Amino acid sequence: MKQIILNFGIATFLSLIIVACNTANNDTETNANDTAAGVANTDTSSMPAYDPALDPWNVEAPFAKKFGDTLGIKMFEVTLKPGDSVALHRHPDHTLYVVQGGKISITTQGGGQQELELPTGAGFVNATTTHSGKNIGNTTVRLLVTDIHRPRGNR
Which domain holds residue 19? Predict the structure, then answer.
């Protein structure tokens, strides 16, 4: 089982690198003679500024094991026992793979509370979000999270 999870993580990581490299190559070709245009076309208005106090790795550290932090991609596993809570934190674009499922409650900043039953083996791709969470079930929940820090361009 660990080998399957490791293979999934590696495949996800490599896929993200390939997509990022492809995007970078397209941007380089488009703006090869105009570096300033590449900077001017970066739109980060929809992304909140980075705040280390809300970084998931900093907030979830008591529950997390980091696998990697390179090239703007941070991968870690979060383990929440029944009753464990994670304070308010912000993910950039991110993926989530459910290693061990269970029932959680998520409260988004400025939004409502949502209870989710996460089945083992489920995967999700999510946009930037700020939320807190709690394991409200009777089983330990383990999640493989990949945060993707990247600028956004006007396209």
Answer: 2-148
Q: Which residues on neighbouring strands pair with residue 123, listed in sequence order?
A: 97
Q: Say what the pTM is.
A: 0.65
Residue 47 has a pLDDT of 66
How far is 78 from 144, CA to CA, in rounded Å? 6
Output the CA angle 102-11-23, nearest 5 degrees: 115
Distances (CA, A) of 96 to 28, 29, 37, 40, 144: 30, 32, 34, 32, 6
Closest CA to 74 of 150, 154, 149, 136: 149
Interior angle at CA 10, CA 86 and CA 117, nearest 5: 40
Query: What pLDDT, on the 0 to 100 scale, is given for residue 107?
Result: 95
Q: Say which residues have a Cβ less than 8 Å from residue 53's Cβ, sequence separation at least 6.
A: 59
Domains in the chain, number:
1
Q: Does any domain span residue 154?
A: no
**Domain for residue 153, yes or no?**
no
Q: Is 92 a member of any domain?
A: yes
